[in-house]
Amino acid sequence: MPRELPPTAGLPLRLSDLWPGRAPFAEQVARWLGVEQLQLECSGTAAMVVALRAMHRLRPQRDEVIVPAWTCPLVALAIHRAGLRLRLCDLAPNHFDMDLGQLCSLASERTLAIVPTHLAGRVADVNAALDVAHRVGAYVLEDAAQALGATQGGQSLGLLGDAGFFSLAVGKGLTLYEGGLLLTRDPVLRDAFAASHRDTIHRDARMDWQRAVELLGYAVAYRPALLPLAYGRPLRKALAANDPVAAVGDDFGPDIPLHTVSHWRQAVGARALKRLPAFLDGTREQALRRVARLRQIRGLTVFDDGPGQRGVWPFLLLTLPSGTARDEALAALWTAGVGVSRLFIHALPDYGYLRGIVPEARLPNARSFAARSLTITNSPWLDDATFESICTVLQRAVGLPG
Fold it and tell me: For position 13, what pLDDT does the model report?
């Protein structure tokens, strides 16, 4: 029977998670994270829209948001939906953090927020963003969409800056199929976020039903025996059409759903949450072993935790020494059903559908990172023998004996 591994380590749902009910989902996640309060939204993107609108109301003379040039296209769409202007910062060489020198030059009296981004569960350099932002009177909004449960210095991400948000989309650990969580320690921002939610978010019965059906589909299909149909077939069809943007799901429309989250989906999330800490511990242990193995391959850069950081591990993010080497590895692995993929296909200006929203810019490091990076699933379904076969392909791609 064919098997397909997912590109990320999502927490599988159980039948017992799906019973009708209600639960104080956001409050339960807040207790687990050790934070005072979380505000539930229908997606991480919606959380970003709500946060930015609130920040803009508090500082209406500011209208620019600085983001890394290699990030999820939904970030650009959220900034546009909030009525604000996007400013792109190139990456640091061979890293997903923003280039500090360029960040300093971009920040001004018009900067509303700087958005350091915790990619692949790794912890971004928030302190550098804070130094720059507070020098010009801007906020720091942490994009922790891929990092629910990650900490630095023993405290949750999202508390390092002025505010932060998590995503509960498929593949990011815990999922409601879609969902987002917004947090801040600042009582003024907390009140502003609540007011922004009341003004922005409305009940939508059609979306409630759609998300419920999608969540049921996830519960059924998120397993290696059914993922060839749910994930593998669309992936191969998109790649055969030479459409890598569709293959990784980067093809977003301009509409951002802004609606409430049903009580039933919250109850499903609350039941699954009980298993999440053990799941994250297990995937962390697996990831650390595999990072050590990948580091034996000369020429690879594998992103790991720094001092005081404890990230989460939905997948492993790495770069190869050249775009040619990366493409050679992907040619063998992307359609092999082993959970190897790409994160974001382009730097933001290079998505055709973002023209008119994202300004053109010279971004050599972001474009290089996009051309040389790939991801390896950290799903528990990826066994050691299959992982070793991936390592063999990577060794050959960088010119080492297999």
Answer: 97
